[in-house]
Amino acid sequence: MRISxxxxxxxxxxxxxxxxxxxxxxxxxxxxxxxxxxxxLSLLVVVALVFWATLPPKQEPESTG
Amino acid sequence: xxAYIDDFPEEAAVIRAAFWxxxxxxxxxxxxxxxxxxxxxxxxxIFDSTDYYTILTAHGVxxxxxxxxxxxxxxxxxxxxxxxxxxxxxxxxxxxxxLLMSLGTVFTAIPILAGFVDSIDMSADVLFTFYAPLQAxxxxxxxxxxxxxxxxxxxxxxxxSWWAWKSENPSERIPLPTFMVLTTMIMWYIATLGIAxxxxxxxxxxxxxxxxxxxxxLTRTLFWYFGHPVVYFWLMPAYLMWYTLxxxxxxxxxxxxxLARVVFVLFLLLSTPVGIHHQYLDPGIxxxxxxxxxxxxxxLLLPSLLTAFTVVxxxxxxxxxxxxxxxxxxxxxxxxxxxxxxxxxxxxxxxAAGGFSGMINAGMNINYLIHNTLWVPGHFHLTxxxxxxxxxxxxxxxxxxxxxxxxxxxxxxxxxxxxxxxVGMTFMSNAMHRAxxxxxxxxxxxxxxxxxxxxxxxxxxxxxxxxxxxxGTLLFVSAVLFLWNMLITSFNRPTETLPSNVxxxxxxxxxxxxxxLDNLKLWTLIAIVLVVLAYSLPLASIVDxxxxxxxxxxxxxxxxxxxxxxxxxxxxxxEGLR
Lengths: 65, 578
Fold this sequence. Notes:
heterodimer, A: mainly alpha, B: mainly alpha, Cytochrome C Oxidase, Chain A, 19 helices, globular
């Protein structure tokens, strides 16, 4: 995993206010996001975060010095 | 390197008792919170709407008076004894203030809960704010008075510890956690004078029938004289833990002792002369006084911003000690698996959001937009409901093992609980803020009206209601998980492997802070002068216009006497004949 499970849980939690507030912010510029789209977007964000977090960690380039 | 209970077993018993008093209040308050949320949103109505104020009073009083302040006295006792490295001067005195607070709580709770039982002629449906014309049974005011006197004695206990320590260490600076406790208590002594006068001179005699009427605006103003600094009384133990424990959990040390002292001095000076900003819509106070209160309030942003800077810098230092690198990648090095750290960090994050909505409340003109709407509960559920409550729960995950000697029952459930609180509060407070902007009122059992519909700017009011109900339910589940974890922890077997009760020395220590910061007499004097400047003219004007006990008006709830019923019937008939 790239991050700990605890950090993943916190990241998912932090995505909740962002997705919720994004809907309000989008309305300021005239974009009405339906509830169903918000729910689908939330699910997509969670899946993307889990996918990214469970990828193997990046390999550090070996020192040539 | 030992746990708190190893060094202070007797003080640990007092702290445990205070924490459990706090948790019982949280359980009752959370239950009424859930009932209220589901009632308002018309999801489930198990109580009659006429009992809504009883539910609201119970939720408010148990949450923001009992839960918060019992936890505060526990944390402050821990902070003073730990940082002075000495026990309390008299354990009997310490238990006596705890018992007085407990008895006061019982006395206050009886008339509140009696409001649910029609056969008992006793009620206190006066909400947490309890000013006239709402009138409670005398027992409510007597209980509150005992509770507050208990906190005064607790403060005296901590001052005694400091004076005893000072006589043995005359040239030493006040240790930072003790400094935080002492400045907070000075602010509390000044602030509680307002409700002491309000209760003892007006509300209690009025409730006992010794005086016929009171001046409602005067009792409102005296309440808000206390009502804003009490917010900082809830917040200061949370700040204390952010300054002392959060850097430790992050693996580092506090960034700056001097900045922390400046912050607490500023809170002492500025917390009280601002209460009139809760009364922007009160007609009996002139606009000029309100403007002064607004200006003072805006200055209060400074210590909060200083705190954000100092605490985040300390956390970053901790993360870099743990190998964190880069501009933002260091965030990944923080101990997110630790519920005490994660809970406090999330609480701090939500406090920032609460600060922004608080600026709207504080702005005199824009306040008119959201005054008495659901925006306001949305705001204070971010501040006291999360910055304070979540920090306390997260702190309990570290402090309870320290004062019981027993390991936390379940760390994964604790982590899940803190995150669940964050998510639940996001749902609930977001919807409350948005509903407030539509003009949906607060303190209303059924904000659904025939022939009128609130128009939502985004989505629908039904969506907002659903969001509030889902958020409130998640918060209740989170509170249950917390209480269950605490209960199981109390039955755990003691362990020898608890983390040590050492607060790391700040990077920039007390030697770097100017000595004048420790001059508590000076700051107390300035705080009193600021209060006199902010309040003497408005209070004189209110008394001049309405008198100390007038202009009067009927108390609520109104007692229906036969003559009153007859008069009402005559009035109604006469009205119908016109």
